[in-house]
């Protein structure tokens, strides 16, 4: 599992012109793009959710847990693009939807279980993501 995290002052995701998930934090929030690979499992999902919730990338070295910052979770298989050969990325490292979807859902649910306010996109949909990156701060999490 690979999570690209951006510290944001606002973020939303729309499908077919309709907003399906949004965060408008009072201070800061996080946008988490989540990619799943073939070897991922529930334990890795749990550990990454905990790592994200407690990651100290907000102002004054605070974590989302410290300030109850909201998190927008968006599935993104393209995080596993292999661009080593040619000009066309390979997606072989990305898990198929039937494997990935329950793990992305478990990631969002794991954050909720830790106390996070979580909004999500729609798995497999063509999504339009809008965000205001704060900092900018962008970090990749991987176990």
Describe the fold and architecture.
With 143 residues, the protein is an alpha/beta fold. The chain has one domain (2-80, 100-142): D-tyrosyl-tRNA(Tyr) deacylase (D-tyrosyl-trna(Tyr) Deacylase, Chain: A), CATH 3.50.80.10. It is built from three helices and six strands. Strands 1, 2, 3, 4, 5 and 6 form a six-stranded mixed β-sheet that branches. A hairpin with a 2-residue loop joins β1 and β2 (18-23). α1 (42-54) packs across α3 (97-114). The radius of gyration is 15 Å and the shape is globular.
What structural keywords apply?
globular, alpha/beta, D-tyrosyl-trna(Tyr) Deacylase, Chain: A, 143 residues, single chain
What is the total number of structural domains? Answer: 1
CATH class type: Alpha Beta
Q: What name is given to the CATH topology?
A: D-tyrosyl-trna(Tyr) Deacylase, Chain: A
Low-confidence stretches: none
- Succession of helices and strands: EEEHHEHEE
């Amino acid at each position: 599992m690979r999570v690209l995290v951006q510290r944001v002052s606002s973020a939303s995701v729309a499908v077919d012109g309709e907003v399906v998930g949004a965060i408008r934090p009072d201070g800061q929030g996080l946008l988490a793009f989540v990619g799943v690979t073939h070897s991922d499992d529930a334990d890795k999902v749990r550990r990454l959710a905990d790592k994200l919730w407690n990651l100290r990338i907000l102002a004054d070295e605070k974590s989302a847990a410290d300030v109850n910052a909201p998190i927008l979770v968006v599935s993104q298989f393209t995080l596993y693009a292999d661009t080593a050969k040619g000009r066309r990325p390979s997606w072989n490292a990305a898990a198929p939807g039937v494997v990935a979807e329950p793990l992305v859902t478990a990631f969002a649910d794991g954050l909720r279980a830790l106390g996070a306010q979580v909004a999500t996109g729609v798995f497999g949909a063509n999504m339009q993501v809008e965000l205001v990156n704060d900092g900018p701060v962008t970090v990749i999490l991987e176990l």
